[in-house]
Amino acid sequence: MTHAEPFELGWEEWLSLPDLGLPAIKAKVDTGARTSALHASVIETFGPPDAPQVRFLIQPDPSDPGLEITCSAPVVDRREVTSSNGDTELRYVIQTDVQMGERRWPIQLTLTNRETMSYRMLFGRGAIQPDMIVDANASFRQPELGFGAYAGLPKKKPVKRPLRIALLTREPNNYSSRRLIEAAEARGHVIEAIDTARCYMQIGTLDPEVHYDGKALPRYDAVIPRIGAGITDYGLAVLRQFSNTGAFCLNGAGSIGRSRDKLLAHQMLARAKIGMPITAFAHSPKDTKGLISLAGGAPVVVKLLSSTQGKGVVLAETRKAAESLVDAFRGLEANFLVQEFVEEAAGADVRAFVVGNKIVGSMKRQAQKGEFRSNLHRGGTASSVKLTKAERDTAREAARVLGLRVAGVDLLQTKDGPKVLEVNSSPGLEGIETATGKDIAGLIISHLESQVRPLSRVREPAAKTRRRARQLSAN
User: What region holds the ATP-grasp domain (predicted)?
Assistant: First the structure.
């Protein structure tokens, strides 16, 4: 009695996805990953809600970004996938045939951006059939292909196209909103200011939508969130829904939530060994004296966790004053922190403006006489300042730890090096642009352009897409 030869795979293999028009992809075979994943950018859905399809762009050769293929496939699911670094992402799932050698079988693939990965595809254990054996010490046990398979296909230079951008804000006429709108329109983009509070959503469909004033909003390429502190929870829910539609969010809901939760933000920064003033958190402590001692003793700064623009921030110069403040906050049953007062800062701090992990501007804010809060809303003044290497590194690392692409990082300059006071996920533009003379709004839009990949062909108008969907369903 003879047994069939096992179908052997190495830890990396060439394969093709014929139904997607991809004759050659180099994949990493990973039995530790349950789900297979395919690189995709500019993901957009089309078709009827009960039978949605997805269109996306792929550069199959990591060393040749000029080789771009537009693919489309039916959506079979949307699934939360946790990557190896612990990030969870809601991804579209498609089903398509894979071919290795003479063998062809259907697999499911999640779509995600793998631009920074060496392999455009991850071949998970869910795609491995029962008679297959993976040799983790071998490569290419199946016939090798090559990117020469694309030689007959015409290369298309990526075309810069206008982006459709949503600016989530309840204050479309303030300085920051106006500057972002001006900068986007100056670069040929379409940008719409949307009042976060007037958005509503339908949850639970494969084709998620955001509704606004009685009708569904169109698909956006990107969203710039400027969510006020008073509407954080609902604003983040709206932002997550925009993300679910496939829009690129300049700052994600998770990163904004981390920065707004002062306790979580301080814990994450501390874990990353980023310098901060000594801080104690409390809700309703009975040991008032012990709490103040944890922060190093008077003088201390007492802050409500919901404080913004310097409101709810009080300096207690003596222990008795500090105890009275803590007792007052405790009576309100408010969450608050008690923080070391860094006297050597002399009422000044430095704001480093981070865009895409780069410091694009910095200013020194000085409190007015008799005031310790340097916020410009409290009468402080601002001037351009050159940061030290330690300050630049600290600001970039603080934004990175919280996952923010755009952030205002407030630093204290001390003899022990820079200390992070706060990381703001919706930093104002007026102070930094006035102090530095730089077009910060333009730099934000430029970074947005670099993150939202252009299609290699013009999108079909939405009406044409709907007509085609109706024709297909009729047939």
Answer: 266-449
